[in-house]
Write a structure and sequence with these properties.
Blueprint (H helix, E strand, L loop, with lengths): L8 E2 L8 H9 L4 E6 L2 E5 L9 E2 L4 H6 L2 E8 L2 E7 L16 E4 L1 H4 L5 H19 L11 E3 L4 E4 L4 E3 L4 E10 L2 E6 L11 E4 L6 H13 L3 E12 L4 E10 L13 E6 H5 L12 H11 L2
The structure holds zinc ion (ZN).
């Protein structure tokens, strides 16, 4: 069931309207299919964590069982589709998958997968989550239909295209000298501390959102805002934009509506955490923290 994937993912957006090509790809034995069940992905059972990518010559009954099919693009030299198996009562019992696959949440296993497989699975999960939540037009309430390889849902009543949404959010590691702020929200696992984050609001720049979020949650004024990097976080539909900022003072005023706790941690404390834990390697927060630790 596991096909080898060694190259890159090409979203090839220019081919999404080429229905004949996509229909032919659906029938090709070389094509790869990425099954998804609700918000869980299929990983191979075995010592290594690997994605389950079903080759076309094994996929016919899975295609028949799929409630949605989305063309993801080309992986290496193979067409690749996501299949939504959310309507199957027992997806792991399906003959193609039985004994070979387990269900997993990418938030926890994403970092264990080869990078390309994680990219493909996260893309499949995000697209299919969007379809499941957009069966009806948010404007007129009529049913919508998938088009363009599953990258559009169309409202015929209004002749209107709905596109998959991505909600940008800022994540800011606030630093001052040898220390940074880590915070925890109520309901997180005990002792888990992460980096402050919040959604960007309509009409707001990314930079203004970063400064506002820190002020609201921590009561801190920050300057010297530096962009770090971004990470898709389609759980269900975020894009995290990472920043480092320098605090103007030490005095934190925690917003207790949003956070259970926030405090300063020295580099030594973060390097050797005692009584608390920080985000796993798959997350942008992990990389923001690591970059802070590596600063001279
Ligand atoms: Zn409509």
């Amino acid at each position: 069931v596991i096909a080898e994937v060694t190259e890159r993912l090409d979203r090839a957006a220019h081919l999404r309207r080429d229905t004949d090509r996509l229909m032919a790809a659906l029938d090709s034995p070389k094509t790869l299919f990425v099954p998804v069940y609700r918000d869980q992905n299929f990983v191979a059972t075995g010592a290594e964590v690997r994605a389950v990518l079903v080759p076309g010559d094994r996929a016919a009954t899975l295609i028949d069982a799929a409630s949605e099919i989305v063309w993801l693009g080309i992986v290496g030299d193979k067409n690749c589709f996501a299949l939504d198996l959310s309507n199957l009562p027992e997806p792991l019992e399906h003959p193609t998958l039985a004994g070979l696959a387990a269900l997993a949440d990418l938030r926890f296993v994403g970092g264990l997968l080869p990078a390309l497989e994680a990219d493909v699975l996260v893309y499949a999960r995000g697209m299919l989550n969007w379809h499941r939540r957009h069966h009806f037009c948010s404007s007129c309430g009529q049913p919508t239909k998938p088009r363009e390889g599953g990258h559009v849902r169309f409202c015929e009543a209004e002749d209107y295209k709905h596109f998959p949404r991505t909600d940008p959010a800022v994540m800011v590691i606030v630093c001052r000298g040898d220390k940074c702020v880590l915070a925890r929200q109520p309901g997180w696992p005990k002792g888990f501390y992460a980096v402050n984050a919040g959604f960007i609001e309509p009409g707001e720049s990314v930079e203004d959102a970063a400064i506002r979020e820190v002020k609201e949650e921590l009561g801190l004024d920050v300057g010297d805002l530096r962009y770090f990097r971004s990470q898709p976080w389609p759980f269900p539909s975020s894009l995290m934009l990472g920043f480092r900022a320098e605090a103007a003072s030490d005095e934190i005023h925690v917003d207790r509506e949003e956070l259970e706790d926030a405090r300063w941690f020295s580099r030594d404390e973060v390097r050797n955490p005692v009584g608390f834990a920080t985000p796993p390697p798959y997350s942008l927060a992990h990389h923001l923290i690591r970059a802070f630790l590596e600063e001279k």
